[in-house]
Specification:
Distance between the termini: 125 Å
Radius of gyration: 50 Å
Number of strands: 17
Order of helices and strands: HEHEEEEEHEEHEEHHEEHEHEEHHEEHHH
Helix content: 25-40%
Shape: elongated
Number of helices: 13
CATH superfamily of the largest domain: TT1751-like domain
CATH architecture of the largest domain: 2-Layer Sandwich
CATH topology of the largest domain: TATA-Binding Protein
CATH class of the largest domain: Alpha Beta
């Protein structure tokens, strides 16, 4: 039943459409003779005649007279027209309408002026950089009683950067004679010059000044600084006072004093184009540094002798193994001990660039001589040391302790 109903509905719709179609063309035929004046030109077409052309015109002066003339004289040659699409067969009594030409309109885009554009501002706009911002060098007026226009340029070399501090500062190669001249010019006192390897040209220069000695009140091991002249790798390398002040001072760390020592050092060697070493540690780990679980900290020192300051220094000098002595007063002194060539050779296994940890520091205070535990001191001086490298020198810590004990017998 549903199918029959659907067929009837479709039939009724088609019948209504056909009736509407016939009424439409009958009305067009009745109105054909009374077309109003317009821009469109109407051309009659005979039955089954093909439409070849459709021409669009925009003649405003075309009148209804022209339309009547076209209807009354079908024998005249019809004007050629162009078209885009037309049916192959035209139904009976159909009219072909020539549509007026659509006028062309040129769209004019308004000129837009943006405030702040290069039309009004001739300076170049800098691009935002994705690189890390590098702070400008600090300019510090030198302290002097005499008026002077000279300014000291102090860089941020060796300072805490993104939570890390470099262990050393490196510069262009300079022979030991030239290094000593720069140090003296900077007001430093030369404590010793030690040749570690004459074949490869490794020399360590130990120096100090009143400001460096003032750091000793927080840790006696800060009473001197070291600089390596490395002829083989063609560079000089010096200890970073900020790094070792963090390592040896603990809770008494004085950053202001350490920065003053650092800035003076970088100013003295400004001509050598200093840069930071790859060796570095997180600043939060330096004070509590431990190579690995079970290894010693800074405070785990080893006692190597007993006696008064004067007696211990006398014994050490008698062995002809003392490189330097810094008297710190109040029963304290810092010595530099030269190790035997056999023990010193360990630097070739872990890296000659950081060989400035020698001569080995020995502290005398409160009637006792003691040294930093070698397992700690070597590790803090070589922060990038791998476990495999450390195992190659596993006998060295005991050898250093034994030589220090022999120094005070």
């Amino acid at each position: 039943m549903n199918v029959i109903k659907s067929i009837l509905v479709v039939g009724i719709v088609l019948y209504a459409a056909a009736i509407s179609y016939l009424h439409f063309f009958q009305s067009q035929e009745r109105q054909g003779a009374q077309l109003p004046e317009q821009n469109a030109v109407v051309t009659p077409v005979s039955k089954n005649k093909k439409v070849e052309n459709l021409q669009i015109t925009d003649d405003k002066n075309q009148s209804s007279a022209g339309v009547k003339k076209a209807l009354s004289s079908p024998k005249e040659k019809e004007p050629e027209v162009t078209y885009t699409k037309a049916p192959k067969r035209v139904p009976k009594n159909a009219l072909v309408v020539t549509l007026p030409k659509v006028p062309k309109v040129e769209a004019k885009v308004p000129k837009v002026i943006t405030v702040g554009s290069p039309i009004y501002h001739h300076h170049d706009h800098k691009r935002l950089s994705t690189t890390l911002h590098q702070p400008k060098p600090k300019v510090v007026e030198p302290k002097s009683s005499k008026a002077s226009s000279a300014k000291a340029i102090v860089s941020d070399l060796g300072e805490d950067k993104l939570g890390r501090v470099a262990t050393y500062l490196q510069g262009a190669y300079l022979e030991s004679k030239g290094v000593i001249e720069l140090l003296k010019k900077g007001g430093y006192e030369i404590l010793s010059t030690t040749t570690l390897d004459s074949k490869n040209g490794l020399e360590v220069i130990v120096f100090t000044d009143p400001k460096i000695k003032s750091l000793a009140q927080h840790s006696p091991f800060l009473a001197s600084m070291r600089l390596l002249v490395d002829k083989k790798d063609h560079l000089i390398e010096m200890s970073n006072p900020l790094y070792f002040a963090k390592a040896f001072s603990g809770k008494q760390y004085d950053e202001k004093s350490a920065l003053e020592v650092l800035h003076h050092l970088t100013q003295t060697f400004h001509s050598q184009k200093l840069k930071e070493s790859r060796d570095r540690l997180k600043s939060t780990l330096i004070a509590k540094y431990q190579f690995m679980f079970g290894m010693p900290y800074y405070g785990d020192m080893e006692s190597v002798g007993e006696g008064s300051k004067e007696a211990l220094i006398k014994k050490a000098r008698a062995k002809k193994r003392v490189a330097f002595v810094v008297d710190l007063g109040k029963g304290r002194a810092l010595l530099g001990m030269n190790l035997s060539p056999k023990t010193t050779a360990f630097i070739h296994n872990v890296g000659e660039k950081n060989a400035l940890l020698l001569p080995y520091p020995v502290l005398i205070e409160e009637g006792e001589a003691k040294i930093l535990n070698p397992k700690y001191y070597i590790a803090i001086s070589y922060p990038m040391l791998k476990m495999s490298q450390f195992m190659k020198i596993s006998d060295i810590p005991d050898a250093i302790t034994a030589e220090a004990q022999a120094l005070f017998r």
